[in-house]
Design brief:
In chain A, 42% of the residues lie in helices and 13% in strands. Chain A is built from 13 helices and twelve strands. In chain A, the strands form three sheets. Chain A has a seven-stranded mixed beta sheet with strand order 2-8-7-6-5-3-4, with helices on both faces. In chain A, strands 9-12-11 form a three-stranded antiparallel beta sheet, covered by helices on one side. In chain A, strand 5, helix 8 and strand 6 form a beta-alpha-beta unit. With 162 residues, chain B is α+β, with helices and mostly antiparallel strands. Chain B is built from five helices and six strands, in the order H-H-H-E-H-E-E-H-E-E-E. In chain B, the strands form two sheets. Chain B has a four-stranded antiparallel beta sheet with strand order 2-3-1-4. A two-stranded antiparallel sheet of chain B has the order 5-6. In chain B, helix 1 crosses helix 3. The chains are: A alpha/beta (379), B alpha+beta (162). At the A-B interface, helix 2 and helix 11 of A face loops of B.
Amino acid sequence: MKPSERVAQVPPSGIRRFFELAEEMDDIISLGVGEPDFSTPWAAREAAIASLEQGKTSYTANRGRRELRERIETHVDSNYDLDYDADEEILVTAGASEGLDLAFRALVNPGDTVAVAQPSYVSYVPGVVFAHGEVLPVPTRREDEFKLTREVLEDAGAEAADLLVMCYPNNPTGATMTAEDLEEVAAFAREHDLGVLSDEIYAELTYEHDHTSIATLPGMRERTVVFNGFSKAYAMTGLRLGYALGPPDIVGAMNRIHQYTMLSAPTTAQYAAIEALDSCDDAVRDMCEQYDRRRKLVLSRFEDMGVDCFRSSGAFYAFPESPWEDPGEFAEALLEAERVAVVPGTAFGEGGENHLRVSYATGMDDLKEAMARIARFVD
Amino acid sequence: MSNRDEVLAILRENARYSAAEIAEQTDLDEAEVEAAIRDLEAAGAVRGYQAVIDWERLERERVRAAVELNVTLDRETSYNDVAERLARFPQVQALRLVSGDYDFLMEVEGESMRQVSHFISEKVAPVPEITQTVTHYIMESYKEQGVDFGDGTDDDRLSISP
């Protein structure tokens, strides 16, 4: 028995080696973490505990508990003006990641081209490959503040693609896009009949303008699947709960795969999520305020160091230019010398080559200390 | 959020931040932060800055009590009059008019139980308007001013994740 050729085609995660290096050291401050430093708001954790005490540990409906889907329907409508029906158009998944995997498998035919805006989260490319698609990287640029534009789509030849994967607010750059920015992408998608998979897991974490979903733009709803979830905004990463929003036939196709593979998303997490939507708005706002303060601190420290760093406005990442040409070498040297971990931009595909991802999902004291150490190292 | 609100939110979290430290967490410069703090103090909104202390960790005996007070008022005496009189005692750490079965909830602090009891029986109970006192000695404090006195939890996240 041996692994399939397709799996062998996908290299292990690009940050693996660096991860192993960092894991060996126990005294580091890590700015390399892609998840909140906060714990899940207590009300949500308590609801999960109560559900366990009451023995609510069975499967749920494939699409997720109806009361959760109803709340998601209300939540995305009031927060993002997204209008989706709890019965037909909402699928609760084990993290937004599962939703994306389902969408790739439900939408990609062998040989289809999937354009992936980069730099991007590390799962999109392997997900497309596992679904027998061809990946077309669409590198975004520092001079556009890492927004997706018509120009970069054309440069990459994305008009020939079948699907486009994008993520704003973005991991790893922290870039966000306004409604006006998105309209350019939407027009391109309409002209070239592209389906759009929009990963909006960081939607709640924007600092300079409210989040707009591309699915709200004219003619986009029928060609878009939106992915969101509880991991980032509600600090629920380990509970593994997300959801997908899309047209009934697409969500139905995704659910077909989901019902045979996952059955249903984790039940305990669904109870936590119901409570999160019911009562944790204040906790989300507090966390958001904290991230914003840290963002301002990190940006001002890079400015003081003379390190080029565009004004990221979402998620919890800053994406400065690497002071050394090779961000991998820089990150390793920084880790060795100053015990601070950042992630080389090379891990996130094209367009991030000479950059570093600096996560500010770290307490203020550690963050300040880490930034002081980076300043000392760069100096 | 206004400058004042933004500065206030940060001070509530950590009043020891310098103006420079607050400035780099906001879009304000140092002078604007200082001005906002001056305004807050001048308006009497920010009344002081204090450490939150877990006395047990210092192995120091601090006796504290929550005291319920009932009062009867007349035309010449208001709640404010009674409150002013009580608040002058340095032993009184907090004094609040509350709804419910009693009128004031007062927090008293002293070196020993005897000292606190003495204070209540000699100084508080004799106040003519006060008709009843019920004293609850604080046995254990778990959280003060929003600060949890537990040990917290370690950061168990992976040091690098995508």
